[in-house]
Amino acid sequence: MASKPVVIVTRKLPEVIEARMTKLFNTHLRDNDAPMSKEELGKALGEADVLVPTVTDRIDAELLAMAGSQLKLIANFGAGVDNIDLDVAQSREITVTNTPTVLTEDTADMTMAMILAVPRRLVEGERLISMGRWRGWEPTSMLGHRIWGKRLGIIGMGQIGSAVARRAHGFGLSIHYHNRRRLPEAPEKVLQATYWDSLDQMLAHVDIVSVNCPHTPATYHLLSARRLALMRPQAYLVNTSRGEVIDEDALTAMLREGRLAGAALDVFEHEPAINPQLRDLNNVLLLPHMGSATLEARIDMGEKVLINIRTFIDGHRPPDRVIVKLM
Ligand code: 8YV
Fold it and tell me: Which of 30, 236, 3 is CA-nearest to residue 115?
């Protein structure tokens, strides 16, 4: 590959990152902040040596078929790679990299904030004041539910799940988790986490469920209507991972019917569309996929993208290569 490869960036990135990219590579930046259309993406795949997409670009089999043989690297600006058809990329010998680790702590902070927000009715309280309806303190108004002493069930004990567990200890939550594989003894001990081989059993046992696993074919609708129905009616559900892990329509119906105490969702099944019936519920907090949205995280993610591209051009294995796992 040429020492100044054509790098096409699909979305606007922090200025410092764009400036550095422009210096290092033959970089084509996005001049507006709208996602590329399918046509624009197809054109980019036909011209780029390296494509830098984000979660809003679906790089599926159909699009990858439009890629020219010059496309050698997809350096995703994001940790999740469910926007890319990894099998097709691999069969076409296109390397895929992502940006893990640097958004772990920010996403865990947001998850913790969401765990606190719904049971303690933060948004409802804020609305009371902003709408000018507060009449003063009352002994029985705005009563939420205690966090301390409750059971938190984490689905997916990877980097983010573990960072949530560390925080949750400070709030007096006991930690339960379900993962594809049980953690080795040492980290499990450090996190004081109880492993549940059966997700069904864990769901029936805990008070708050936090979804922290990636979206893969194996986790699509992991929280199906059947599994959601196993949760306790007093339980809360928090999702900062991917909307596709939860059957959003089934969850919406349960929340509307009062079969679940509440939910805090930062991600949705068909982003940016949201089931409209979720919107007018008091016990639901909806956020616009902002779990990792700090300036620091975005700059660190950009740095990772730069390092991955640079190492690849220099003929080395980029540090954040995504390996397709044969299941
Ligand atoms: C990112 C995310 O902001 O990195 C991820 O997987 O879900 C987000 O927090 C987004 O993916 C950027 O492409």
Answer: 236
CA of 240 to the centre of ligand 1 (A): 10
The pLDDT profile of the chain, 327 residues, written as one tens digit per residue, is 667 999 999 999 999 999 999 999 999 999 999 999 999 999 999 999 999 999 999 999 999 999 999 999 999 999 999 999 999 999 999 999 999 999 999 999 999 999 999 999 999 999 999 999 999 999 999 999 999 999 999 999 999 999 999 999 999 999 999 999 999 999 999 999 999 999 999 999 999 999 999 999 999 999 999 999 999 999 999 999 999 999 999 999 999 999 999 999 999 999 999 999 999 999 999 999 999 999 999 999 999 999 999 999 999 999 999 987 654
Domains in the chain, please, with CATH? 6-102+294-313 (3.40.50.720), 104-286 (3.40.50.720)
Instruction: Count Cβ atoms within 10 A of the Cβ of residue 74 and give its class: 0-12 exposed, 13-18 middle, 19 or more buried.
Output: buried
Q: Does residue 42 come out as left (phi exceeding 0), alpha (psi in the -120 to 50 range) or beta?
A: alpha
80 within ligand 1 shell (Cβ under 6 A):
yes
> What is the Å distance from ligand 1's center to 80 Cα?
6
